[in-house]
Amino acid sequence: MKFKKSLIVPLSLVLAVTLCSLSMPPEEKAKNLKVLPKNISHDELMKTMRAFNKSLGVKCDFCHAHSKDDPKKMDFASDVLEEKETARDMMKMTMRINKKFFKSGKDENGQQIMTVTCYTCHNGQKEPVATPPGMDKGPQGPPPAVHDTPPPPPQNH
Predict the structure, then answer these.
(1) Secondary structure in 3-state letters for the chain
(2) For 59, 85, 113, 118, which has the most beta carbons within 10 A of its beta carbon?
(3) What is the rounded CA–CA span in Å between residue 58 and residue 38?
């Protein structure tokens, strides 16, 4: 009798956990993924989207349309905004650059190495800039002189 009681408690716990996990809704799969892996986890997808937000200084509605039924919600599968297709093109471009010039982005020890990302060009801005700040105002006089040898120290008289 003692054996049966000690077996009933663990089996009851296993049954309870199994029933609870069956009653939980399955993780919703992302729809209309064309560049990101179709089997990407929700957590990995959110991490990727947050990286886009920070790299471009934008919110979700920069690429994703609002739902027609409820404008407070997003229609993440919609392709109505051209920025979403631009983002896909940019992702493909960076993937090609990284594959060609940085191989897999990992060194021989499997450590992450420098790769091109959205932030590389955008620096937290919607549109990347072609020149550093202050350089876009046209010529500012002659460029600074480049000396092969340092100038002589000032003379005190």
Answers:
(1) CHHHHHHHHHHHHHHHHHHHHHHCCCCCCCCCCCCCCCCCCHHHHHHHHHHHHHHHCCCHHHCCEECCCCCCCEECCCCCCHHHHHHHHHHHHHHHHHHHHHCCCECCCCCECCCCCHHHHHCCCCCCCCCCCCCCCCCCCCCCCCCCCCCCCCCCC
(2) 118
(3) 24
Per-residue pLDDT at 31: 92
Structure-token pair, residue 41: 């986890």
pTM given for the model:
0.65
